[in-house]
Amino acid sequence: MSQQPPAMPSHLRGALDLSALKPAPAGQQPRPGAPGPTAADGAPAGSWVLDQATQGDLQQLIQLSSRVPVLIHLAAPSNPVSQQLDDLLAPAVDAHGGRLILARVDTEADAQVLAAFGLAAGPAVVAVLAGQPVPVLNQAVPRDQLDQLLDELLAAAAQNGVSGTVPPIAPPREDAPGAHGGQEPAAPALPPLHLQAQEALDAGRYEDAQDAYRRALAENPADAEAKLGLSRAGLLARTAAMDADAVRERGASAPDDVQAQIDVADLDVLGGHVEDAFHRLVRFVAGHPGQERNTAREHLVDLYSVVGDQDPRTAASRKALAMALF
């Protein structure tokens, strides 16, 4: 992109390695992907800016980057440039109404986040598109230049199949226009089982989260959010203890082992390599008859749920799967 500052390291254009990050404890702040607050008429009312993101949020944020670009502000609160970046980016992101997300991580409180991005110091802003980081800013710029940069970012995202929208991830910002005018919209509570699931996810208790979503589906089989949550919690549970190098080595050495191929596909989806994951399992389905084919097909359908039925990569893979089956 034309606005990338030269001070940002070029290797950030490669895959994002978050293996050094440890899970964060549960908190009270709404987590990425959680339903946002709504106004009385049911329309979204909130912000797409997560002010105090933690290490534990980064995995979910990277998953969301398969739907919308995610801007991560690697903040250094002692540096005035960080506040300038916040003042510049927050209203611009909210103005896009869910086509972008901004998350602010305090790197002075946790330098491991900087290390994960290959940086020695903040502040810096990195955009993540489908799991791939792209350096964006390390200093404030004029508003018209920022608007141009965000337009280019959204265009690049659309070219890579990242063109969705997400609901608000936080309450309205205090400095947002109209935030204090009229009656403040109340954020409805999550359904009890959804709340249990979200708290379990925040704490890294993925099996408990799956159990809560299963109970929610038992109560209401048409609960689309519970179905989506169950699939995503399942992916996190399956990959939590994986040794990525060992899994990929096994996948390369055992192309006819359905579980080996499923494990690699899970890692690919988690890391944003969605098309690679889908292609791997479609290819396995095409080349293997019998029960193994069905196992791969069922897992692929579950990964479609993780990525989302509206994602163009899902639609393309469904067509490829149909051709492989028939």
Automatic annotation (TrEMBL):
Segments of this protein annotated with the region Disordered: 1-45, 162-189
Superkingdom of origin: Bacteria
Name of this protein: Tetratricopeptide repeat protein
InterPro entries xref list: Thioredoxin-like_sf, TPR-like_helical_dom_sf
Biased composition (Low complexity): 23-45
